[in-house]
Amino acid sequence: MGDDEMSLFLEEMAGVQPLKSNTTTTVSEKAVSTEAQDARRKQLQMSEQLARLTLEPHLVTASEPDAMVEFKRDGVQDEVFHRLSLGGYPCKFEVDLHMLKPQQAREALYQQIQIGRERGERNIMVIHGKGVKSKPFPALMKSFVINWLEQIDEVLAFHSAQRRHGGTGALYVMLAKSEQKRIEAKETNHKGVNVR
Question: CA-CA distance, 168 to 159, in Å (whole number)?
Answer without folding.
Answer: 9
